[in-house]
Amino acid sequence: MHTRTAIAVATLLAFLSGCTSGSSTPDTAASPAPATSSGGLTGEYASYAAGLSRPVVDSQYPQHGTDAVDVLHYGLELAWSPTARVLTGTATLHIRPTRDAASVSLDFKPYTITSLTVGGQPATGAVTKEKLVVQTPVKADVPFTLVVGYQGKPSTTPWPTTTRGDNHPLGLTVSADGGLWTMQEPFGAFTWYPANDHPSDEALYDIAVTAPPGWSAIASGTPQGQQGDTFRYRSTVPVASYLTTLAVGKYEKATGTGPHGLPITYWYHADEASYLPMMQKTAEHLQWLEKHFGPYPFDSAGVVMVESPSAMETQQMVTMGERFGQMGPRSFDGTLLHEWAHHWFGDAVTPADWSDFWLNEGWALYAQRLYEAETYPGEMSPAERIAQNRELDGTYRKQYGPPGKPNAAEFGNTCMYTCVAGMLRQLHQALGDDRFFALARGWVQDNLHTQQNRASFTAYVNRKTGHDFTALLDAWLDSPTTPAETGPLPS
Description:
Blueprint: E1 69-81, E2 86-97, E3 104-107, E4 112-118, E5 121-122, E6 124-128, E7 131-135, E8 144-152, E9 171-174, E10 180-183, E11 203-210, E12 216-219, E13 222-227, E14 230-239, E15 246-249, E16 251-257, E17 263-269, H1 276-279, H2 282-293, E18 301-306, E19 311-312, E20 318-321, H3 322-327, H4 329-341, E21 349-351, H5 358-375, H6 382-400, H7 415-446, E22 450-452, H8 454-465, H9 470-478
Parallel strand pairs: 1-11, 17-18, 18-20, 21-22
Antiparallel strand pairs: 1-2, 2-8, 3-7, 4-5, 4-8, 6-7, 9-10, 11-14, 12-15, 13-14, 16-17, 19-20
C-alpha cells in the first residue's frame, strides 16, 4: 500500500465498551497455515517449505501472476552500474508447479537473457510482453530449480489507470544521479527479477546486491552484512513480491534499537540528514503498535528514503518518499506509522487477491488515526472526526463505488481507506476496547504469514467475537451510501 498525502482525515472512536452475544461461525481460510514441516517437499526444497502458497488468478489484474506455479524461494544476485545504467542479475528460483504443463511462465521485463537452466541443464526461453516463458515440461508438486541470468537497462511498467495524486510508473526506477529505487504495488517486482508477481504467492528471499565503491545497496529482509561492495539480505518468513524493495545510492546509514532489542537501520542521503529524527520515530511507532496489535511480526526493521512521491510498507524496510520529509514532521509521523501498521495488516497477513486490498488499507488507516488522535489531541474533537469521516465516506462511495466492489481502473482509491476505517470504527464501538483489540491481535497471530480474503475475515470476526457481524461488514463493504451509525452491543 502506498500512503497518499491526499487521504483525508478519517475517524477517532469515542471509546465505548460492550459485551458480545450470538453464535460462533467457523473460519474459512483463504490459504494454508504456515508450514510446520516440509509440506511434502524433499531434499533441498524442504528447507523452503515456509514459502508454500496457494496461488490464485487475480480478479483485478489477471495478466499479472499465475496460479500454475508456486515460487518457494528467490535467490537474487544483482549488480548495478550507475555509469552504464545496467542491471546484471542471476535469479535462482525454487518452484513448485501446481499442475502438469509443457512450459513455465513468470512475469519479467524484457532484459537480455544471458543464461537459462532448469535443474542445472540448459533450457530454452524468451521474454515477450512482460512474460518469461521457459519451454520445459513440469509435473504438479514436483519442484524444480530455474536459474535465469540477465542484464539490461531497467524500465518501469505503467500504473493502472487512477485519479490518485501520488501515482507514478511502477517498478525499478533510475534516478538522475544513477541511483535505483522501486515501488511496486499492485505489481512491478518483475521489473528487476523474474517473479510470480502476485500477493497470493509469497516466498522466501535471499538478496545480494553489489554496488559501486562508496555506494550502498538496501533491500527488504534482515541485513546479513556487507562483504566488500556486496550487501546481503534474507527473508526467512514469506514475502509477497509487491513487498520487496531495492535501493542503490550514495546513502548515509544510522542504526537504532526498537522494542525487545529489535535492530533498526536507517538509510538517507547526505542532504536528508534533517529527516533522520523523523525516521527514528520508528521505535516509538513499533512500541505503540505492539501495545495495540501484538508483537512485531519480524526480526528487524528499517527505513530507506527514495525520490518517490509516495510511501510503501515494504517488508522490514519501509520505503519513504522524500516528499514526506519535505512536508515536515507531522506528515512524516502519520505516514510512517501507517506503513509500520501494515507490517501487521498486509505484510504479516496478506490479501489473496487485489479485490481485498481494503483489508490492508482500512486497518492501517484506522491504526494511523487512532495514533494521531492520541498523539495530536488538539487537532480535532472525536465528534468532529466522526462527522468528517462520514461526510468523506459518502463522497468516496459516490465517486468510486463501495470498497468491497473495487474498480480495477481505480487502484488504491481513497474509499478503500476511509470507508473501511469507518467500518472498523463501528466494530470498535460495538465491542469496546478490550474485545476490539483482542480481535485485531488475534487476526494477525492466528493467521500469521498467510493470505486471507473477505470470507475468511468475516468468519474470523464472527467466531472471535461470538456475534454475527456479517450484516454490518456487508453493509460497509457493499453499500453505495454510508451505512447508518450503530451503537455498542447490549450487555
